[in-house]
Fold this sequence. Notes:
Elements: H1 2-18, E1 28-38, E2 44-48, E3 52-54, E4 57-59, E5 64-67, H2 71-80, E6 85-96, E7 101-110, H3 134-137, H4 142-150, H5 156-162, E8 170-180, E9 186-189, E10 201-203, H6 207-217, E11 224-234, E12 237-247
Parallel strand pairs: 5-7, 10-12
Antiparallel strand pairs: 1-2, 1-6, 2-5, 3-4, 6-7, 8-9, 8-11, 9-10, 11-12
Amino acid sequence: MNRWILIAAFLWIATIAGAAVVLPEGFVLNGTEGTARKNTDGSWVFTADNDLMYIRTVLPAGSALSVSPSGGLEQIRTFAKDSDWTRVKVWGILTSYKKQNFLFPMQVLALSRTERKAEPPLPNKRIDPNAIDSAVSDVIPVEVMKILRSQSKIDLARLGEAIDAGSKDFALIGKTGFIIPDKDKYFAPDGFGRKVENSRLSLLPCLTLEDTEEKLAKAFGRYRYNISGIVTAYDGRQYLLLYRATRTYSNRNFTP
């Protein structure tokens, strides 16, 4: 009996040790320096020069973070030009989807194309939210920069509602439509027969999408949702990062 307990304990420890490190959704990258690289399939990953830490969870320097399609990724691709890598400084957030982190970059600056070894992290220092980097604040609204600089984990709703229409990314709040969880996951806004909208917003990986997919997998038919999120664009296509998705209950095809 004791032998089987020891074997079970060993397997449990091995499983925990081999589990991927996942930082909480909303973790902030505040001017984090690193290298962006292009994969053979055309996707991009970002590796930070230093460890990313949240309380006791540490994502080691050099860990590859998949970069979500976004205006920030468009900037990375522009900086890389014809190369498959580039050095960058990133402001953005991490999302979490199926036990994996994804980087949603909001602003990217180019660095010298020189490979650099990871350095020990500097002591934590509270940054004055009013001390805004002018090179970045010209693109990201001041309200958003204050949120990014103020803490290491944020509520995506706070970020979305702080984004104004003057930035390349913008908040979409309280929009009704259908979430289609097939291979090409997307949100289809509902014009309720008026044909005012026929666009589709591809959905980016995040906890809200994961939770919604689980609910839809147990449902029958299609359900209308009221959603809020952040809209961004990459390579001529629009994407949506959800931070709220609530099923609506209506009478036939009319709004609730």
